[in-house]
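Justification of resources, computational component.

The compute hours requested in this renewal are based largely on the per-chain cost of generating structure records like the one below. Each record pairs the submitted sequence with a full structure-token output. That output is archived, and it is also reused by downstream analysis tasks.
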Amino acid sequence: MNLRRLGAALLLTGLALVGTAAPAFAHAELISSDPAAGASLPTAPTQVVLTFSEPVGLAATPITVTGPDGVTWNVAQVNAAGAVVTAVVEPTGPAGEYVLGYRVVSDDGDEVGADLRFTLAAAATPSTTSAAPTTTTAPTTPPPATSSAPAASTASEEGDGGGVPVSVWIIGAVVLAGAGAFAATRLGRTKKAE
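The structure output for this chain reads:
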């Protein structure tokens, strides 16, 4: 009988832990991008649009675009409105592979970033007018967080962005399971004594 109670206590403890731990691991994930990762474009885009799984804020340098010649595009008017980040870009550079890097701030305050690669079939030429770089965040998004973590450098790979290490959750689960087992055992002994 004690083994059944112990098993039930451990099962309930495990379910409670899994139910409360899952939201702590959630970070904003990129759902779609324009230009899309891996896309081959006939002409250079004049705007970047990123859509995330939750509302995001902007990091210090939210969007960068770097060409095969190492030249970066001028990025202006970066806006975060809920889960959508838009930026006006001024393309320049030869045909080839370009890297679109992004850094945003998740709802929990952690920075998330990655690099997306796309290809231009023709050289990008800058327009004759140039906009001054501006960055705005809608009032409903969290304030930007500062982080010394380097930006992700692999293609289409989500950054870790920090958060609580998995080892903390594992230790917590072991302690909680032990406490549940101890309580179930003590409860079983108390009832037998009566």
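Residues 166-193 form the longest helix (28 residues). Residues 2-24+166-193 form one domain.
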